[in-house]
Design goal:
Blueprint (H helix, E strand, L loop, with lengths): L5 E7 L5 H8 L2 H21 L4 E7 L3 E5 L2 E5 L3 E8 L3 H6 L5 H4 L5 E6 L8
């Protein structure tokens, strides 16, 4: 099955981690300054990679899980997502080295995986 060079990148965060505890411990002014720095860096990253961003994605909210047991609120580490194009899986992963989500914001990592069937037709 072809990936068509399209990859889903999902940022992960454990909201109970030391990085998040430090984030929550900041004063409102410190957090606003860090947000400003981070959002500026995210805009610069987006601009630098605009030719390979297929879908900008965005932050993910609270999760509901549907299973044979019904619908329930759950907590997971999925935080933000974006879809990119790259010549290989390795190249797609390397796009996110030193990304602002974990150099400025307290995300832990980004998982990059091929979209096996490509994007749906519009």
């Amino acid at each position: 099955m072809s990936t068509d060079g399209t990859y889903l990148a999902v940022f992960l965060s454990n909201k109970m981690s030391p990085r998040w505890r430090a984030w929550y411990a900041m004063s409102d002014d410190e957090r606003r300054a860090k947000d400003e720095e981070g959002f500026s860096a995210l805009r610069a990253w987006d601009e630098k990679h605009r030719d390979v961003i297929v879908y900008e994605g965005g932050p993910l909210g609270k999760t509901k899980r549907t299973s044979p047991d019904g619908v329930a609120d759950v907590v997971n580490e999925l935080t933000v997502f974006v879809v990119v194009r790259a010549p290989s899986h390795e190249a797609a992963a390397k796009l996110f080295e030193n990304h602002p989500h974990f150099t400025i914001f307290p995300c832990d990592a980004v998982d990059v995986m091929p979209l096996l069937s490509g994007l749906p037709k519009a």
